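Handout, section 4.2: multi-component inputs.
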Amino acid sequence: AQKITQTQPGMFVQEKEAVTLDCTYDTSDQSYGLFWYKQPSSGEMIFLIYQGSYDEQNATEGRYSLNFQKARKSANLVISASQLGDSAMYFCAMREGQRAGGTSYGKLTFGQGTILTVHP
Amino acid sequence: DTEVTQTPKHLVMGMTNKKSLKCEQHMGHRAMYWYKQKAKKPPELMFVYSYEKLSINESVPSRFSPECPNSSLLNLHLHALQPEDSALYLCASSQVLLQGVRQPQHFGDGTRLSIL
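Output:
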């Protein structure tokens, strides 16, 4: 069963405007983490922002913020003041609180991604 | 610049060749990962090493052979690959903590592999 759903294959935004990238997830764990990564065409995966299931405040990192609605199981990424360099693929990912031999590295489950294009 | 370094950045090899991909990190992370990524698709987990021991093998064909010589290095040995193995191969690392959901995985730039 798909655990992370990104329903927008592609999004377009005008430079300097804000854009929201959607992400919904499914888990029965109480403890989990949600991550957003950016992947430019060059290939590297860049960690952007993290939201923990027990965090009461929405996460923010510079121009990135996370609109976390736990009851709806959604963790949308908001990018404010879009820049041309924001054009990339964006992945939402979830890490559940798994144990393996007393330690946890928790597998990351990725969504299908959203390609964001910023127009000048 | 990423803190996880992968070499080479590009690799073209024939189906009978043997080659290796290398990954190095100096962040003190004790979990390291190999992913395979096809164009416009999410990364697919291949292997996880925790404290230099193989913890997860996601049913990867034996023509891919991982190795973790020490806590900073991760290799992926390739032999007799098929054209469908052409992809971007990403290495990542993270801390290993009890119930460590909070720690992000840090990725390298990847190796673009083409099989002729």
